[in-house]
Amino acid sequence: MTDADGPAPGAIDAAHLVGVPDEFQRLWTPHRMAYIQAGPQPLEDACPFCAAPEMADEESLIVARGRTAYVLLNLFPYNSGHLLVCPYRHVPLYDEATPEEVAEIGELTQIGMRVLRQVSRCDGFNLGMNQGQLAGAGVAGHLHQHVVPRWSTDANFFPIIAKTKALPQLLGEVRDTIADAWPAAS
Predict the structure, then answer these.
(1) 156 within 8 A of 98, measured Cβ to Cβ
(2) What dihedral do alpha carbons 129, 78, 36, 55 form, nearest 10°?
(3) Does the annotation mark 144 as catalytic?
(4) Measured between alpha carbons, how far is 136 from 129 in angstroms, rounded to an integer?
(5) Annotated catalytic residue within 31, 82, 142, 144
(6) Looking at the chain, which terminus has fewer C-beta neighbours within 10 angstroms, N or C?
(7) Angle at the Cα of 81 from the Cα atoms of 77 and 86, rounded to 5 degrees
(8) Domain of 48, in residue numbers
(9) CATH number, position 171
(10) Helices 171-181 and 99-120 meet at what angle, rounded to 10?
(11) What is the pLDDT of residue 171?
């Protein structure tokens, strides 16, 4: 329904809405498209934690490299800045890691917490390792520690009701911020 001068009163010309704020909050998660398009098969065929160190840091989302372990962003994060600390060696369980790997995983976890506190002003952390597929490990064959920053204001209804997580930054931006703030190896 239009009048001679254009759209009817109260109608919205959608072509002019690009970038115009409205009452809707949109959840942009373009990084998840790679996961959706690939399906579960790639995780069954190859270990992403063995492949990541062979790629450029920006491509694999690695923020820091140590001697026996490295740190990268979780491709499917619970919160912005969700880090994973992995040994380079393909080992499935914590009790199979060498003393050197255990020490460096601990050290990188501590540094990651300090960096996240600095760049994101988080209020706390969830740390954890899911050991084995039965225990919830998405990549059960390769040990990895989760470092999830938390804020007192990050709880809302999305994860519980809608099974949706709102992430305010793209992974590349988060990776650059954390990598830039990571202290140089001494």
Answers:
(1) no
(2) -60
(3) yes
(4) 9
(5) 144
(6) C
(7) 75
(8) 28-181
(9) 3.30.428.10
(10) 110
(11) 84
Average pLDDT for 14-27: 55
- Ranking 30-34, 46-50, 108-112, 170-174 by mean pLDDT, the lowest is 30-34
In a domain, 11, yes or no: no
Is residue 32 a part of any domain in this protein? yes
Domain count, the chain: 1
SS (HEC) of the chain:
CEECCEECCCCCCHHHCCCCCCCCCCCCCCCHHHHHHHCCHHHHHCCHHHHHHHCCHHHHCEEEECCCEEEEECCCCCCCCCEEEEECCCCCCHHHCCHHHHHHHHHHHHHHHHHHHHHHCCCEEEEECCCCHHHCCCCCCCCCEEEEEECCCCCCCHHHHHCCCCCCCCHHHHHHHHHHHCCCCC
25 C-beta neighbours (distance < 10 Å), count? 6
Write out the two tokens for 179: 């990598």
Tell me the average pLDDT across 8-20: 55
16 located within any domain: no
pLDDT at 78: 83
Note the pLDDT tens digit of each residue in 109-124. 999 999 999 999 999 9
Cα separation, 86 vs 90, in Å, equals 9
Query: Which of 14-28, 37-51, 131-145 is least confident?
Result: 14-28
